[in-house]
Amino acid sequence: MEPVSAAVSAVLPAGGSGERLGGATPKQFCGLQGRPLVSYAVRAMERVSWISDIIVVVSPENIETMKSIVEKYGHKRVTIVKGGITRHRSIFNGLKVFAENQSSNRLLQKPEVVIIHDAVRPFVEEDILLKVVMAAKEHGAAGAIRPLVSTVIASGEDGCLDHSLERARYRASEMPQAFLFDIIYQAYQQCTDHDLDYGTECLHLALKYCKTNAKLVEGTADLWKVTYKRDLYAAESIIKDSLSQQICIITDVKEAVVQAGFLLHESLKNQVKVEAISISLSKNDSHLQNIFSGECYNFLCINDKEYATEEIQQLVDMLEKSNVPLLYPVVLILVHLNISENISFSIGLEELTKIKKFAREVKKKNILVYGLLIQYKVTERTWHIGGDTNTPIKANFCLSWRQKDLSLQHPLYSQKLSKVNNFVWEMCSANRKT
Amino acid sequence: MEPVSAAVSAVLPAGGSGERLGGATPKQFCGLQGRPLVSYAVRAMERVSWISDIIVVVSPENIETMKSIVEKYGHKRVTIVKGGITRHRSIFNGLKVFAENQSSNRLLQKPEVVIIHDAVRPFVEEDILLKVVMAAKEHGAAGAIRPLVSTVIASGEDGCLDHSLERARYRASEMPQAFLFDIIYQAYQQCTDHDLDYGTECLHLALKYCKTNAKLVEGTADLWKVTYKRDLYAAESIIKDSLSQQICIITDVKEAVVQAGFLLHESLKNQVKVEAISISLSKNDSHLQNIFSGECYNFLCINDKEYATEEIQQLVDMLEKSNVPLLYPVVLILVHLNISENISFSIGLEELTKIKKFAREVKKKNILVYGLLIQYKVTERTWHIGGDTNTPIKANFCLSWRQKDLSLQHPLYSQKLSKVNNFVWEMCSANRKT
């Protein structure tokens, strides 16, 4: 179901010089967790299925940089357009591509509604995009607004306070904004050079030249613009935070394994949002597909087979197909339960080599695999946990212990799972911290 | 020399509920690196020698919390005052303390100029405080301003855009602000209940009731107000950043030691701002005193004596007296050079115990001591570096190696100092990361 019954495309001006940031790199190209800011903003648009084309307007000297970003992060719906010397001129260039079909790569369909968003506002959600698009369809123009954080004042010519504005009457105009394409394009065509050189606000142009009073839509705090260095810090922390917020525990349908999954769920749920599902990995489970599309970046897969290579490969394939690892690294923790009595603790050297090789391979796909072996010998009442992360990951981890006098609530798992819990937590956090 | 020839005090309203932050803890009490935000703001005021009294106004339920903060972080010039239900009422309560001498603790002198600053703007510098105070002396009122980040718009009753303001004509009104005490107090005395309940801007009151047009002073980007959760992230990153930006290398005046200090300086200077000084610690060196007052938090002390306990104790005493460890933890790395041929590598168990005990003691004073032993045996061309951080710090570190074929530029130190460099870097970073 398409929530929007209109052709919608987006223009992202990304031509700014980032002078307020105080660095040499324009802010839209600054890396957050190694990925440029503009790529997050593009991805935020690409996630929305009803946005057809995404025009990214960059200054001439950054076209090659932008091309390599599109390639590296697999952006599919992006057209790169050469910007002008001001923000308005860049947006106008972006709009022209639709009107004049001048793009050399392919023909772009003129949209009914065009979204204008900033490359430096990476956290825009589908919800607010939908709201401004629907409002633009009805009113011709719409834009997100936020309450003012500071009082706004006007200064006199002597550098002294002339008057302060009543804060409740005013709002900060933010992005995204959306317009009926014909309205905003017509407004730009009528613009004076003064508008193009000194103005910044598209809503103002729609009002001035097309008498269109934009509908104002209350946005969330996430919409703020990365302006100063502190905003880069904040954006990076928000990304790290969201990465470690959720974990999905996947088990097959055998009782012992499901039980372990349940206990892990209980023990982890104080720290993160946990979703536990029992599935047969051999079938293409729709529940799992939903989770993949729900932006979860941590997976824990419990099995009791000896290195269930096929199942793991399948999981990796599904993850890859889901495009989840395109945006952020995905952590995949393989927990192998061994509850038989006669197998020795140590993992065979051959198996270890195999797992390590596998982990190295999938790391290239931005999936970080960790292995964990849990063995329970009923006769000795001894628990072992062996973590193998001599895999491709920076964090080193090796843990094993014996405990003679366990008073386990559940004969097999229970208490010691808090150690697994810690392991899981550490692994999920490890690559966020770097 | 006092830069301000007037009695100056400050009022910090800290009564907010922090609802925009979305958390249970009001933002001024949120911890950054374990220390509440309000304590940073207070400390920013306390660093300025010409500010006499600092009134912190908190809501009744937070008075005990604030008291414990004052005690824990050793704030000396703070008077806690009970706030009102709005920001203006809280500021008024703060001002009344000076006018009515109603504080039960002690008599507070009525200042000529009063600074009003927010508890949630922790990075205010002496420079801008001085500017607003001087401007207030001349004009009666003054406040910091910043350019607007977003366009400000007025909405009509239908929720649509009415008009947008010309961005260049307007400014965001920020803190700090300063007033001749009599002016702002008189303004508050004339305030209506509506002003006290719905207004937020002191400059506006001075204009409305005392016809005083405040002088507007361009502030730096640091002055921003911690409003949303992302601002807490940003503030924490800024603090961490500033902590690891500078290191001071202290050596005694012996040639070999000075030489090592010089090479370390060369090798570290790509990563941090390094200041290297050679002093005789037995004298109270004024250069060192300057560095202590210049907000350096990392010290590396090189010596070639066997555990120069006295010198180290002296350094710790100086650090303590300087109040530097009051705000942030201080890292003190002791590097002991051993260039004699006949002493074995290992540090004696007795010495180790002694150093560990010492480190445990000074940790209570917020000084984190790390030890590093470097031994060079000319005959074997062998380097050893032994790091003892089984001291009070979380990070574990132990490093030692041999290298047979060193092609040292300098016979004694040079290349291998890059390892020391790494050690230093790790230690300085370790407690910032936690």
Automatic annotation (TrEMBL), chains A, B:
Pfam family, one: ISPD_C
Reactions that this protein is recorded to catalyse: D-ribulose 5-phosphate + CTP + H(+) = CDP-D-ribulose + diphosphate; D-ribose 5-phosphate + CTP + H(+) = CDP-D-ribose + diphosphate; D-ribitol 5-phosphate + CTP + H(+) = CDP-L-ribitol + diphosphate
Protein's UniProt keywords contain Nucleotidyltransferase: yes
Any one Gene Ontology BP term: protein O-linked glycosylation via mannose
Keywords for the protein's UniProt record, in alphabetical order: Cytoplasm, Nucleotidyltransferase, Transferase
GO molecular function, one term: D-ribitol-5-phosphate cytidylyltransferase activity
Major location (coarse): cytoplasm
UniProt-listed PANTHER family: D-RIBITOL-5-PHOSPHATE CYTIDYLYLTRANSFERASE (PTHR43015)
Protein name (database record): D-ribitol-5-phosphate cytidylyltransferase
UniProt organism field: Anser cygnoides
